[in-house]
Write a structure and sequence with these properties.
By secondary structure, the chain is of the alpha/beta class. The chain contains 3 helices and 7 strands; from the N terminus they run E-H-H-E-E-E-E-H-E-E. The strands form 2 sheets. The protein has a 5-stranded mixed sheet with strand order 5-4-3-7-6.
């Protein structure tokens, strides 16, 4: 079961709709055009379109499986003092005094540009259940980092 925000669920539904209603018909049209050009054994356009169709169908199946097992979390039912899924967390690196703000989301919603980290990431995993003022030590690819929780909100 995948827990996610309403925003993440809606985004996945929109991506699936785009794949099914726009991308797949376009690639099927490209296959038909390439097929009309003659010998399929040496037709690069045909083989490229078939590969693209397989990629799109794979993505459609993946998105359908994710949505089939998705459960939207109601933020009003979540506790606000301990860090959990959909929590907005402000942390500071104790060594560099650098502050960062992240929202902990499902892996399908993770986007570093938007400040959303996966619940399965090392930092989010170490922060789960912690409260304001707690200090955690996290093993990250760059080494060991000590972080202090400055603020937690929903």
């Amino acid at each position: 079961m995948e827990y996610m925000s309403q925003e993440g669920y809606d985004k996945l539904v929109a991506e699936l709709h785009q794949l099914e209603c726009v991308d797949l018909p376009q690639v099927r049209e490209a296959i038909a055009e390439a097929r009309d050009k003659g010998d399929l054994s040496e037709n690069f356009e045909y083989h490229a379109a078939k590969r693209e169709q397989a990629r799109i169908l794979g993505r459609i199946r993946f998105k359908q499986r994710v949505l089939e097992h998705a459960r939207v979390l109601d933020k009003s039912l979540l506790g606000g003092d301990a860090i959990g899924l959909l929590s907005r967390v402000e942390i500071s690196n104790l060594k560099t005094n650098h502050r960062m703000t992240y929202t902990i989301v499902s892996p399908h919603e993770a986007n570093m540009r938007e400040g959303k980290i996966s619940v399965k990431s090392p930092i989010a995993h170490a922060l789960m259940g912690k409260k304001k003022g707690d200090v955690v030590t996290v093993n990250v690819p760059a080494g060991v980092v000590s972080l202090r929780v400055e603020n937690v909100s929903l």
